[in-house]
Design goal:
Layout (H helix, E strand, L loop, with lengths): L16 H5 L8 E6 L13 H16 L6 E3 L22 H17 L4 E6 L5 H14 L4 E6 L7 H4 L2 H6 L5 H10 L11 E2 L32 E2 L5 H24 L9
Parallel strand pairs: 1-2, 1-3, 3-4
Antiparallel strand pairs: 5-6
Length: 270
């Protein structure tokens, strides 16, 4: 079915136009646009990892969300800006300009329909900056349109309890964390017999520069990994994936609830 992980009653495309026209609290209804990628994730994981994780987390969240909170998922944007994985077969990438244009035009349509709260739920680590740009541009264009550029993994989670510091810091792609969650969400698509451990070359111990962080440098994956993996996929297991999913779902339930009640701060003019 089209809705996949998303509960059918929460799937925006299953609504009719009279359903939308008749909504009584449209300005506070939370519309969620999942944004992900189709890109290499090493020899053991499918290209759809980011999409599967975003939709899996969102689906479970909407399934257990307070039914009094109106929230709907748009269809997932499977293609994203994935040019850091350009050199690995199977990666499909949009330009930043194309992805920005798609999101801006989706927002135009939602605003025209009367919606005023939009979450950009991004699950691909290569495009948070795009979400931030789009959110600011939409809100600047429509002052009463509240837009939230969120990263799926940024809600409270328990990754720090399950994995060591190195895996948390540089195990950022197809390593133990993503592989564990995929063993929970799509176990039949995980090839653990092909899992590898490969970390990027170490930076000098006194360097202020890093792959990601306060002072990052630009990189493409082939410079850092032969397999396409950044992390230790061999230590992944489903029990950890179950705990990661439960924590992410709990965090996303709180986030969607807060967005539903959120009002834009305004400086007093008196």
């Amino acid at each position: 079915m089209m809705h996949g992980f998303i509960p059918p009653q929460r799937y925006f495309p299953y609504l009719t136009w009279p359903d939308i026209a008749a909504m009584s609290d449209k300005e506070n209804t939370v519309i969620i646009q999942p944004v992900a990628a189709i890109e290499q994730h090493g020899p053991h994981l499918p290209l759809a990892v980011d999409s599967a994780i975003g939709l899996g987390v969102l689906g479970k969240t909407l399934e257990t969300l307070n039914p009094e909170i109106p929230a709907y998922s748009l269809p997932n944007l499977y293609y994203g800006k994935s040019n850091e994985h350009y050199h690995f077969p199977g990666t499909i990438t949009l330009s930043a300009q194309t992805l920005i244009s798609i999101l801006l035009e989706v927002a135009d349509s939602l605003y025209r329909a009367g919606f005023r709260k939009l979450i950009l739920m991004n699950s691909h680590g290569g495009q948070p900056e795009i979400m931030n740009i789009v959110a600011r541009d939409i809100h600047q264009k429509y002052g009463d349109f509240l837009v939230f550029p969120f990263f799926t993994w940024k809600v409270s989670n328990i990754v720090a309890e399950l994995f060591d510091e190195r895996e948390q810091e540089v195990g950022i792609h197809a390593g133990a964390i993503e592989t564990s969650l995929m063993l929970t969400l799509l176990p039949e698509q995980v090839r653990m017999d092909k899992a590898v451990c490969e970390f990027p070359p170490d930076s000098p111990p006194d360097s202020m520069l890093s792959m990601e962080g306060k002072l990052p440098f630009a990189w493409v994956t082939k410079e850092l990994s032969q397999s396409g993996v950044l992390g230790d996929a061999t230590i992944a297991d489903k029990a950890k994936g179950d705990r990661i999913l439960a924590a992410l779902v709990q965090g996303w339930q709180q986030v969607i609830t807060e967005v539903y009640h959120f009002q834009q701060p305004q400086v007093s003019t008196t």
